[in-house]
Design a protein that fits this description.
By secondary structure, this protein is mainly alpha-helical. It has helices at residues 3-48, 55-86, 92-109, 117-151.
């Protein structure tokens, strides 16, 4: 295969990858729309169900709504990551944001009473380490962006 043919093949492959990334971005938009509809249905169904005035039902509704909303934020950050790939931009910020949202979601829905004390402490420690690492990355990246903007 000569150099010209290789270039044509790699150009075609690059175009195919860009097309597939665009399809993935569109799929994430569909997931986001379905998630918003799901959130609405969950809230309406919980409020119209008999007994929705009970404190435990309200807490359950709030937990479900927060869980769905945090999933939706993760989908939005994944969408931003895919778009950044397609536009050949840095994806570090989007990945850190998605990671932070995912870890915070896990922390919010974590129920230590479902685990043995040792497992609960281990899981909580892992969440704390992940959160700390992501926060350090968040501040480093955003600090570097602010420094670059100050220079310009």
């Amino acid at each position: 295969m000569d150099r010209l043919q290789a270039t044509r093949v790699t150009d075609w492959l690059e175009g195919s990858v860009t097309f597939l990334q665009t399809v993935i971005a569109a799929f994430l938009v569909v997931l986001l729309l379905l998630g918003v509809v799901n959130l609405g249905i969950t809230i309406v169904a919980s409020l119209t169900t008999f007994g929705a005035t009970e404190p435990t039902d309200i807490v359950s509704l709030i937990r479900s709504a927060i869980d769905i909303v945090l999933y939706l934020f993760v989908v939005v950050e994944l969408y931003k990551t895919v778009v950044a790939y397609v536009e050949a931009q840095s994806v570090v910020i989007a990945v850190i944001h998605a990671g932070l949202i995912a870890v915070v979601r896990q922390i919010i829905i974590f129920k230590p009473d479902e685990y043995s004390p040792t497992e609960a402490i281990t899981i909580a420690g892992v969440y704390a380490l992940l959160l700390a690492a992501l926060l350090v990355g968040f501040y480093v990246v955003h600090g570097q962006i602010e420094d670059e903007e100050a220079v310009e």
